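Bit of a strange request maybe. I'm writing a small parser for structure token strings and I need a real example to test against, not something I typed by hand. Could someone generate the tokens for this chain?
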Amino acid sequence: MEPALLILAAGMGSRYGGLKQMDAIGPSGETIMDYSIYDARRAGIKKIVFVIKKESEKEFNDVIINKYRGKADIDYVIQDLSMMPEGITVNPSRIKPWGTCHAVLAGAEKIKGSFIVINADDFYGFDSYKVLVDYLLTLPPEKQNEYGLVGFVLENTLSENGSVSRGICEVDGKQYLETIAERTNISKLDNRIVYLENNQQITIDGNSIVSMNMWGFTASVFPKLKDLFDTFIKKNHESLDKELFLPSCIHELIKTNFARVKVLKSDAEWFGLTYKEDRLSAVNRIKQLVASGVYPENLFN
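Reply from user aminoacidic:
Good idea to test on real output. This should exercise your parser:
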């Protein structure tokens, strides 16, 4: 059975200044999510599930559901802050979602088999979906604890308009993920790429492989993520801003020998919307892809 696609679209968009998931960047008003769905369906994916926040539910129904009605199998779930272990109460002042681990868990009710996770505001390209779909479809039954990750080159994922955070991957000789370390405040400085740690700028290799949150999982990941989230939330349920990120959880599953993650190479080019100023670059790159025939001028014709 072909994998489903889980699109994480519940982010706050604080640096971008709004719901970038809904921002039109294509020549006929397409969003990055539209290109993701187009590429995923070409790669063989049929079911698409969005993770959204309650506040954007009406707009999502008006814009996304109506757009795809009769064209694709679209569904959604709410990333509900109150989705807690029994006996745990959330700080009533909490607004921020609990992070990408929580977002993936929200999708468990709609997904029964293997699935691919992406960010709503990232463009991954057709080849990325194809290599991940092919990998998941060829996993034998005895390897359901093996997952996939599409890796990208760090220097190709930076923004000219501010710093970014990336999961830096270390792999073994067979291209299995050994560690994934979250680095924050990554930016270009003169001819170097640096990140900030303990108020010090540390140089990092621009050819490093990074995770852009494009994962391939089997359903075996859900119980383990729930265990990790429950442990996290019992310690942090009063917090207003702490989050549990998916890369941290997967690193823990690798460290405890529950899972292995194959880092897959894609020939596709990544780009995304982190800052409002990134929009023009994204628009121009889509124009180039349309002009070269990769995409039609109107995805919905």
